Amino acid sequence: MRVFAELMWFFRAHRRRYASGIIYLIVVTLLSLVPPALVGMTVNRLVHHQMTAGALWGMLALILAIALVSYGLRYLWRVRLFGGSILLATELRDRLYEHFTRLSPEFYHHHRIGDLMAHATNDVLAIQDTAGEGVFMMVDSLVSGITLVGIMAIWISWKLTLISLLPLPIMAFVISRYGRMLHARFMLAQAAFSDINDRVQEYISGIRVVRAFGQEAWERENFVALSKDVVEKNVAVAQIDALFDPTISVIVGFSYFLSVAVGALFVVHGSMNLGSLTTFTLYLGMLIWPMMAFGFLFNVVERGSASHDRVQTLLAVQPTVVERPDAEAEVPVGDIRFDVPAFYYPETDRPALTDIHLEIPRGTTLGIVGRTGSGKTTLIRLLLREFDLSQGDISIGGRSIYAYRLHALRQALAYAPQDDFLFSLSIRDNIAFQDPEADFDRVVEVARIADVHEDILRFPEGYDTIVGERGVTLSGGQKQRVSIARALLADAEILILDDTLSAVDARTEAAILSALKENRQQRTTLIATHRLSAVEHADNIIVLEHGRIVEQGSHEALLRLGGRYWDMYQRQQLEDLVEQGGHVG
């Protein structure tokens, strides 16, 4: 029952809803105890020939009235209690979603998407059942059980009541043991569901790769193995589930046998009349439900408890990037300055960046070049505050980026990432992601700057074309240009292009860069790339190697230096020549 205490924050917040629902439920439960008493009275009057037609019709009318009132109250308590459980599920999903948005990339490196989806679906539904069905069964079983036992003991026969309750301690012990077993097995079943959920999501996302390498059969075997594991884990849960009902039925049946056998002896010996035994038997039949509900309650609660533990473990993960209490909401503007003695990714002992001291005047373009793994993206991720520095600082306009609220900082930054992720929406909605209310003319304008407008018009539905999951209907170059257009629409102080021109040809690249230079005057642009042609026009270029700035200057100055930049430039010139069908001889 620990889970009810852990959900008390929600019950307190919605105390009026739950209090009214519980009151309606208690009234219905108490009303259900009246008809058996009326039946007993009727039997006694009939046995003693004291029942008149008028009294009989009065009894029937009263029972009908109770049924009608109970009907209305049953509707009300279900709306209140089960409606409350739906609100809890909604709030938990909202909390999870908000929590996911605040967690750092490091978290997603250690948690699978399918597992997180299982937390937000199956686990939340199990907690919802606890707050709905669980509360109902707990209140109903306790109120009806205690009231029934009280009436049977005080009003009819305490001896017969005591005899009929003798098997109950056995039931309590067995159900408690089943509950512990169910908790452990349900945790395993939910984990197995997370595994298969993650596998399906990954398989569908990578279906083109699977087909390209002809690995459909291998993937199918993996899925069958995971599916079999899910079945085995859930069968193990079902085996414990299946024990609840027959165990309770046997114990209740034994209790029924004792009460009827002993009660009959009481009637024979004259210590109880037939009407009282009839009423007692009816009440004992009604006592079957509280006993059954108590068993079902353990089942629901243990499932909810296991799922609540999983969800709380997830919510307990603290974001590694947090705002200062005095952080300001002002959007930063001005020169960018990096002073980074060293930066280490979590759980690594090798620095990703070392001795980065760099100033980027407002309104200039910085090119960031280097081989794969040289630290280009790391530098950008620090500016975006995907990770925080343990030493050093990064400032904009002379103030540390840590002095600004995260939302304010990111309003100053427009980012086109390496993986050019697109949502399964229309092209227009993807471009206008930062501002869904953006004017269509503005959407077209940034699409033209990104040199993707003509490509979009070739689709039958133009800007209303649905791009599919992760933009699957678009080519690599088209996705990159839509990603650039999305960043441009934000019209931010600082534009960051992280290798987002790698899939476009030289003509398209030149057109985009020319349009950017014309439309982003007086604003800062950072271009990280391995293609030097993308940064030839930059005001300043830094060359990174093993996380260090090894060269810095304009394109012409770096060529004159004859160092690493010159070497990279000559190599790419040669590669371009070969691609164009030229020869060296």
From TrEMBL:
One of its GO terms (molecular function) is ABC-type transporter activity. Residues 21-303 form the ABC transmembrane type-1 domain. CDD domains: ABC_6TM_TmrB_like. SUPFAM superfamilies: ABC transporter transmembrane region, P-loop containing nucleoside triphosphate hydrolases. It is found in: Cell membrane. It holds the Pfam family ABC_tran. SMART domains: AAA. The chain crosses the membrane at residues 21-43, 55-77, 135-156, 162-179, 248-268, 280-301. Residues 336-571 form the ABC transporter domain. It is a multi-pass membrane protein. This is ATP-binding cassette domain-containing protein.
